[in-house]
């Protein structure tokens, strides 16, 4: 008799748990806009996230190893006509890449550091980088705080915080020192 009660109470407890789980699940689905039996909507890709949420490497919070700024990674460099400019190099998100006149191409050397990297984010190598319309022979890296910053034609590459969507060229000729980089590593002369 006691064993029967234990079995019945266990079954009742299990049934209650299932009912509560089902209620919770249908509430979650209603608030997320899905119905039972359907899957949650897939995340739609965006062309670019704001700088604070883009993928970062190295130290926590998206800063470089010295904590002085932001570093972004890319898996693709491609030649693309952007905002009326001749062909410039963009990353895997379609964001324009830039070079800095104060950097040096031979040997590759970066000078943008500290607060500069909050506006001009160094593009770091992530695994291997694919190219489309950009010669792999022109790609290289320069060491930056224990990581590798991508170079093109010897020039270290950067993203501009003001370019938040694919196809923008907002950093072109900033301070007469920052220019979109062409597939040959030269600076773009476009006024975009």
Summary keywords:
single chain, 192 residues, alpha+beta, 2 domains, three-stranded antiparallel beta sheet, 2 helices
Q: What fraction strand? A: 25-35%
Main beta sheet: strand number and arrangement?
Answer: 6 strands, mixed
Order of helices and strands: HEEEEEHEEEEEE
Number of helices: 2
Helical coverage, percent range: 10-25%
Unreliable runs, pLDDT <50, ≥5 residues?
Answer: 15-69
Number of domains: 2
Folded structure, characterized:
- The structure is a single chain.
- The protein is of the alpha+beta class and 192 residues long.
- It is 18% helix and 29% strand.
- The N and C termini lie far apart (86 Å).
SSE arrangement:
Layout: H1 2-32, E1 72-81, E2 87-90, E3 97-100, E4 104-105, E5 108-109, H2 116-119, E6 120-132, E7 139-144, E8 147-152, E9 155-156, E10 158-160, E11 178-180
Parallel strand pairs: 1-6
Antiparallel strand pairs: 1-2, 3-10, 3-11, 4-5, 6-10, 7-8, 8-9
Short description:
By secondary structure, the chain is of the alpha+beta class. The protein contains 2 helices and 11 strands, in the order H-E-E-E-E-E-H-E-E-E-E-E-E.
């Amino acid at each position: 008799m006691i064993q029967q009660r234990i079995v019945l109470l266990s079954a009742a407890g299990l049934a209650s748990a299932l009912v509560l789980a089902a209620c919770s699940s249908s509430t979650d689905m209603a608030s997320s806009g899905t119905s039972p039996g359907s899957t949650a909507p897939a995340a739609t890709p965006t062309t670019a996230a704001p700088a604070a949420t883009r993928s970062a490497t190295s130290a926590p919070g998206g800063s470089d190893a010295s904590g002085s700024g932001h570093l972004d990674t890319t898996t693709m460099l491609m030649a693309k006509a952007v905002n009326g400019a001749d062909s410039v190099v963009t990353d895997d998100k379609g964001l324009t890449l830039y070079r800095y006149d104060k950097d040096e191409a031979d040997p590759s050397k970066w000078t943008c550091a500290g607060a500069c990297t909050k506006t001009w984010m160094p593009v770091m190598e992530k695994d291997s980088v694919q190219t489309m319309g950009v010669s792999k022979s022109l790609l290289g890296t320069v060491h930056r705080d224990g990581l590798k910053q991508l170079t093109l034609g010897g020039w270290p590459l950067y993203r501009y915080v003001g370019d938040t969507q694919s196809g923008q060229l907002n950093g072109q000729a900033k301070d007469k020192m920052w220019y979109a980089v062409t597939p040959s590593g030269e600076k773009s002369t476009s006024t975009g």
